[in-house]
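Consider this pair:
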Amino acid sequence: MKKYIFILTFLVPATFWSQHLLPNEEVVYSFETKNGKKMSLVKDKKNQYIQYRFGTKNKVEMEFPSERTKESWKKFHYNSYMRGGGKDNAGMEIDNLSFKNNGYEYLLFRTYHAEGEVYTAGIIIKNKKAKETRIKGNYKTVEGCICNLQDTGMIEREDIGLTF
């Protein structure tokens, strides 16, 4: 019996931390990538923190920031653009969220273009030499919207440019 309690003591926390969504959290924005990974931007239901997670469905490979505090909100930068008018006006919506971690710049994006009804999602990562790596999201798996960050009152729009 002691053997089972010992095993459960270590397995339950390991399973708990490998999840992309903890019980006190809600998804702000998430999607699966074309190569089977998962990106999750989550926040505490009471807005105590915000956190980016990336990895497989079963294992989080990267969390940013590592600490879950109110200060986490200041580490993200948000911008959006919307032009209405549908196809005739080349209507579009662009949402960007950026952060820096260990010398890399990360940009999460979501776009919609009325011409052709094109939706995209993904991550752009720039290293110190500004070399870009693009990770395409599978739009059919998108949950939430970066745009919902405005409703929290915790993050302000900033002129970080618009990229997609």
